[in-house]
Amino acid sequence: MSLAEKLLTGILLFCFPLRVWGWDWQTRVTVVVKEQPVKAVCELLEKEYGIHFSYSRELVNLSRKVTITAHNQRLKRVLEDLFDPDDIRFTRVGDQLVLLPVKRNYRTISGYVEDMVTGERLIGATIYSPSLQQGTTTNQYGYFSLTTVKDTNSLIISYVGYTPFLQSVANRGNKLLTISLEPLANLKEVVVSATEKNRLQDQTQMSKVNLQMSEVQAMPKLLGESDVMRTLQSLPGITGGLDGAGGLHVRGGSPDQNLILMDGTPLFNFSHFFGVFSLLNTDVIKNTDLYKGAFPARFGGRLSSVIDITMKEGDMKAYHGDVSIGLISAKFNLEGPIIKNKTSFMVSGRRSYPDLLMNAVLQSGNILDPNGSLGAYFYDINAKVNHIFSPKDRIFLSFYKGEDKISVRQSMEDTTIVPYDPTKMRLEAGGFVAGWGNTIGALRWNHIYGPRLFSNVTINYSRYSFFTEFNQKYTIPAADQRVDLFGRYSSRMQNVGTKIDFDFRPNPSHSLRFGAAGSLNYFKPSSSVLKDMDSRLKPLDTIDQEMRSRGVEMSVYIEDEWKLSQHLFANLGLHMSGFQVEGRFYPSIQPRLGMRYVLPRNWAIKAAYTHMTQYLHLLTNSGASLPTDIWVPSTQRVAPMFSVQVAAGIAKTTTDHNFEFSLEGYFKSMDNMVEYRDDSLMTSPNLSRWDEKVTVGQGWSYGGELMIQKKKGNTTGWIGYTLAWSTRRFPGINRGEIFPYKYDHRHDLEAVVMQKLSKNWEISASWHYTTGAPITLPVASYLGIGNASPWDPGPETMPVDRYDSRYNFRTADEHRLDLSITYSKQKKRWRKTWNLSIYNVYNQKNALFYYLQEDEVTKKRYLNKITILPILPSITYSVSF
């Protein structure tokens, strides 16, 4: 080798190490990447500048995607921007750049978020740590727990309708905080402040709706009453019962498949006046969460939905209330401190009075005789006491009582059932009374064990009862005989339960909930008596078997809200329960899984798998939820219902929080559904073995839901559309073939607009359209022999119908427009509000039910319908103080 060659080789060998070891912290580098993992940036630096990285995959996660634009910048500055967000420290060891996790001291900050004016705890308030770039929300009792780095100086707390607050937390250790938020001054500001609401893409939970009470109050009112349930019916995937009748059908499910909780206590009937009015006074509701699917593991016992309603706790600082008077109902609410800042109360009452108006109208028109009366009313009472024992202990005692009554009393002087015949029975007087209602009570105790562990213990009682009574007095003039018939039928269900729930927040990546519950269900579905009050003999017919039965339900659950990576989140849960009845035990393991992946531009893809089991059945075949429907437990013959639901969707809240968009698709299979074999409403009081008169089958529902909602500004509202199918199959019904079920509405569209006209005026409108529901009608008929009357047993030819299949026709499509105008004026010490609502503005004839009627001339039958809700204007005046 020549001297020149040796010199060149030496220069090359000398220069190569300069590329490997010749970098330092001041070396200038250029890096331009977009949405690439941190690992890819490290590989780029190694390739271009000879910087070798050394790290353990178990300790250091380089999967986070980053966007970096650095031109001729110092290496150390680029590395700091790259690794600091993931708490990764770097150091040079020889020719290696070693990556290690930062050993940082953490602390847990916990406490409550409350209303500054009333002391009411706020549900779902957001607590955000800028230094950690993570946050949490308050639970159902206003409590939060956030583990953050020790050098965190402040937290940002925000809530819809309140001024955001910057809370200093420096040098506070693990002290329990109580953070008070100031309400915004007026309704206009509250609407604009919706920017503080959590974004849809930040919530792993799908198929969930948080219903704002301001939205419920702004909706058009039926007969002057705001209604939570009617507002829920305006959301995608949810339809109501027949127009004017109760019922809440969620994703093809029946009304009994909805778990309705009021302060953690189940309700078994949730409407007044056959669904015209909501069971609950909206003015005392604090928060409402609806789950249509992807149920968290803490809920169980129903197949279709969970409606979790929290009542107000009462003002801790001052007394205030409101009074409202409408056309057919009036109500009041009062709350305030018993001991200021320690004990509060809330009480409300509501009573309708259509019976007073109807009696006057009927008697003035000679429709009701002077000695007769018509009664139709409902009332309900809510009461709640809230007491703070210590910063870590609080107790709540709540009570609800509500009842409906319908009665008819009529004197039949100078009238007979048939043309006068002294040998036949004559009705002199008669009366009918029906009543139904709920009674519930709950005792709850909140306790904080430490900054990361919160618990709630609940003891509750719920009772639903129904009864009918009739009294008829007859005479037979020829025999000089009197008969005073009295009959009564009643049904009752009771539930006593206890539950303990824990909320554990070990670190920002995990939020654990776990607990256990037990309840005793008592059923008395049937008790009846029929007797002659003028006779000393035994009752004519008494059935007191009542099928008294008891069922014990037990459950445990655990769920974890888990951050798997920067973009992937999961809600993992398991609900295990069992039901003991008639000497048989039904166990159930119900896995729950929810996933969320955040896409570029802040779109989120969500998916969920849910398994639910229901141990109770509702005996009904009506399209409405009626008080005569009977709750019964699973038996040895009829097993519990269970369902599997899968759902997937995409969701986004725009950057300015102005719009929310969600699109979901779902498929739900249901087993052990029950149906009467003869498809007739069972009115027989003998229910000693109801499970022998039903058939057990399967059900399926599937479809898609689209919702676009405007959350911000003077104009707000939403458009919701549902495309859905609901089918059933039962042995022995419809020849065992699949048929569309009565809750099958193919298309459902709802549009809601709320417009703030000025400081004092607001107008809202809602338009609803749904395609017809399945109905069973005969395809042919022939003449048969029947009886003309129970009082005249002579034979008469009557049409006998032939049916080819179940639910073989569809009713007409239904649609309706409702309007509402509200005027509010703030006085010095009180606020007055006038509301004018028009239900069914263009007087659409939507049917309550259909029936076959014969034309008196042609003797041909045709399909007729009964409608009970024409155009209905109402006006309500309320005063708040």
TrEMBL record:
Per UniProt, what is the membrane topology? Answer: Multi-pass membrane protein
- The protein, known as: TonB-dependent receptor
- InterPro entries under this entry? Beta-barrel_TonB (IPR000531), Beta-barrel_TonB_sf (IPR036942), CarboxyPept-like_regulatory (IPR008969), Plug_dom (IPR012910), Plug_dom_sf (IPR037066), TonB-dep_rcpt-like (IPR039426)
Q: Which family does it belong to?
A: Belongs to the TonB-dependent receptor family.
Q: Which UniProt keywords are listed? A: Cell outer membrane, Membrane, Receptor, Signal, TonB box, Transmembrane, Transmembrane beta strand, Transport
Domain (TonB-dependent receptor plug) ranges: 224-302
Q: Which residues form the TonB-dependent receptor-like beta-barrel domain?
A: 435-841
Q: Which Gene3D superfamilies match?
A: 3.55.50.30, Carboxypeptidase-like, regulatory domain, TonB-dependent receptor, beta-barrel domain, TonB-dependent receptor, plug domain
Q: Main subcellular localization, coarse class?
A: membrane
Give the highest taxon in the source lineage: Bacteria
Where is this chain's protein located in or outside the cell? Cell outer membrane
Species this chain originates from: Chitinophaga nivalis
One Pfam family cited in the UniProt record for this chain? TonB_dep_Rec_b-barrel
